[in-house]
């Protein structure tokens, strides 16, 4: 996930260097906006690729494959001599980001205990913030090609970490590999959460056997009809469409709240709000450092505060930052301020970044890792992240247009309207997920837990399989 921060922050150091008169690749505003925003367009491809890989070959395999286009993209940037090469490189990186944006919250949600899941999911935004700080610092002292080389090395380290990581216990259970699932589950969480392990395996058995029964002695035509019926039934299930509806709005909120705009156009925003007289490079590094500190605080706070409370407080402050910055820049541009000082603009930008670092960046990943049922997690996750991709592209691509035609004050008011609408939808539909198992959350969307009849019909089979596995697992290891 740190690769997201490296890629998003790289635009902020690349574009100013390419605008210099001595640049080997001269660009205009249109080319610059495409270089910054093509990531969102490419994310869509990654969203479509990864669900099938996640479901069929596993989370770990999908994770490994997502890093390949990221590394190739960095080496394409290092050797680039024209805009086309840069666009191809950023497109490859966008595919990698689309894959990991779907995969990351799902994998962490399946790895971690409900007690610690929020903190672990918050580390996604912390590593993204760290990536942004690293690349902005590199860009303050190095040429963009050298900075890209360092980023490629960091991504290679990511690859080594994933190679030595285990497969998801939830996916192993979904594949019928219950013994492997139990071993990985206990390796990750110890011996204290056997109840969640038992419920996860029982649910996986029910789902697998119902699918197997549907495929017995069916012709091709019957199987096609069954598949169509399954799809039409699935899309009407509350535990399928409700999480997607919620995450569509949460991901939209996260993108319009300004995280990627601040990461990709940091220098431009400081210039519009404060002016060009300040040491903007130092201000950018300071802002990134504040983001990391705020993310670190969020890792602790998210363990103490309910998800809904955290969302409404941080997004409320985000709306205040948008409106206050819009009012300040409008008044400043029309000489309506009785008193002005660069510190006012710096404070407003830092308040905005604080709301992003503690709320609108970490919370979408946390909520995504907790909402989706196991049976539909890959499909639902990929579909909802499609809106993350499209909104990332729209927001980053339109920044130059909005700033030029409406000013930063007009653009910020537009952002605040979209964020406010999404917050209202979350208020009405999003359940509380803190300290609840994934199965309990799924049961709430369904409106009921798995019926006793469903569990009873498989209880004897479950007990037999589980007893045999317990015996094998209890054998001494030589």
Give the structure's gist in a few sentences:
The protein is mainly alpha-helical and 478 residues long.
Structural notes for this entry:
- The structure is a single chain.
- The chain is an all-alpha fold and 478 residues long.
- It folds into two domains: 1-177, Growth Hormone, Chain: A, CATH 1.20.1250.20; 227-452, MFS general substrate transporter like domains (Growth Hormone, Chain: A).
- It has 20 helices and no strands.
- It has helices at 2-18, 29-57, 59-78, 83-111, 117-141, 144-163, 169-174, 178-189, 194-215, 220-234, 238-256, 259-264, 266-273, 280-301, 307-333, 342-360, 362-371, 377-429, 438-446, 452-473.
- Helix 14 (280-301) packs parallel to helix 16.
Strand content of the residues, in percent? under 5%
Helical content band: over 70%
Q: What is the number of independent domains?
A: 2
The CATH H-level superfamily of the largest domain is MFS general substrate transporter like domains
**Low-pLDDT residue intervals, each spanning 5 or more residues:** 454-478
Fill in the CATH topology of the largest domain. Growth Hormone, Chain: A
What is the residue-averaged pLDDT?
82
- Biggest β-sheet, characterized? none
SSE class:
mainly alpha
List keywords for this structure.
single chain; mainly alpha; Growth Hormone, Chain: A; globular; disordered C terminus; transmembrane transporter activity; sugar transport; Facilitated trehalose transporter Tret1-2-like; transmembrane
Furnish the topology, listing elements before pairings.
Layout: H1 2-18, H2 29-57, H3 59-78, H4 83-111, H5 117-141, H6 144-163, H7 169-174, H8 178-189, H9 194-215, H10 220-234, H11 238-256, H12 259-264, H13 266-273, H14 280-301, H15 307-333, H16 342-360, H17 362-371, H18 377-429, H19 438-446, H20 452-473
Helix pairs in contact: 1-2, 1-5, 1-6, 2-3, 2-4, 2-18, 3-4, 3-6, 4-5, 4-17, 4-18, 5-14, 5-17, 9-20, 11-17, 11-18, 11-19, 13-14, 14-16, 15-16, 15-18
GO molecular function: transmembrane transporter activity
Keywords: Cell membrane, Glycoprotein, Membrane, Sugar transport, Transmembrane, Transmembrane helix, Transport
Membrane topology: Multi-pass membrane protein
């Amino acid at each position: 996930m740190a690769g997201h921060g490296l890629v998003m922050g790289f635009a902020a150091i690349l574009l100013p260097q390419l605008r210099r008169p001595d640049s080997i690749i001269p660009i205009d505003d249109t080319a610059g906006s495409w270089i910054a925003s093509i990531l969102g367009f490419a994310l869509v491809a990654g969203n479509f690729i990864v669900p099938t890989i996640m479901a069929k070959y596993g989370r770990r395999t999908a994770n490994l494959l997502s890093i390949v286009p990221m590394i190739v993209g960095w080496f394409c940037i290092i050797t680039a001599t024209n805009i086309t090469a840069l666009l191809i490189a950023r497109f490859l990186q966008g595919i990698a980001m689309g894959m990991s944006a779907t995969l990351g919250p799902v994998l962490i949600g399946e790895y971690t205990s409900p007690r610690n899941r929020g903190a672990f999911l918050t580390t996604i935004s912390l590593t993204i913030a760290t990536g942004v700080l690293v690349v902005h610092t590199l860009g303050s002292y190095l040429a963009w090609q050298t900075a890209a080389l360092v980023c490629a090395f960091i991504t290679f380290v990511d690859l080594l970490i994933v190679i030595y990581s285990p497969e998801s216990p939830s996916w192993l259970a979904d594949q019928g590999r219950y013994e492997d699932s139990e071993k990985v589950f206990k390796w990750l969480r110890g011996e204290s959460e056997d109840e969640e392990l038992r419920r996860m395996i029982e649910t996986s058995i029910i789902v697998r056997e119902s699918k197997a029964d549907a495929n017995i002695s069916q012709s091709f035509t019957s199987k096609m009809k069954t598949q169509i019926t399954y799809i039409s039934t699935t899309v009407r299930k509350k535990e399928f469409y409700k999480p997607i509806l919620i995450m569509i709005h949460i991901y939209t909120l996260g993108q319009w709240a300004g995280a990627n705009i601040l990461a990709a156009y940091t220098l431009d925003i400081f210039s519009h709000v404060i002016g060009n007289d300040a040491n903007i490079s130092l201000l950018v590094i300071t802002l990134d450092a504040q983001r990391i500190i705020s993310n670190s605080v969020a890792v602790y706070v998210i363990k103490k505060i309910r998800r809904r409370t955290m969302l409404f407080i941080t997004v409320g402050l985000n709306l205040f930052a948008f409106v206050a910055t819009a009012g300040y820049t409008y008044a400043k541009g029309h000489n309506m301020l009785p008193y002005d000082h660069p510190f006012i603009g710096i404070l407003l930008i830092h308040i905005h970044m604080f709301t992003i670092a503690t709320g609108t960046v970490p919370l979408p990943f946390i909520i995504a890792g907790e909402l989706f049922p196991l049976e539909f997690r890959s499909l639902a996750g990929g579909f909802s992240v499609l809106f993350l991709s499209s909104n990332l592209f729209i927001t980053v691509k339109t920044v130059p247009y909005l700033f030029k035609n409406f000013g930063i004050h007009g653009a910020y008011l537009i952002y605040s309207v979209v964020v406010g609408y999404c917050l209202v939808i979350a208020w009405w539909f999003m359940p509380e997920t803190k300290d609840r198992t994934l199965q309990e959350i799924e049961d709430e969307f369904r409106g009921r837990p798995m019926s006793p009849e469903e569990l009873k019909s498989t209880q004897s089979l479950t007990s037999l399989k589980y007893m045999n596995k317990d015996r094998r697992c209890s054998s001494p290891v030589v």
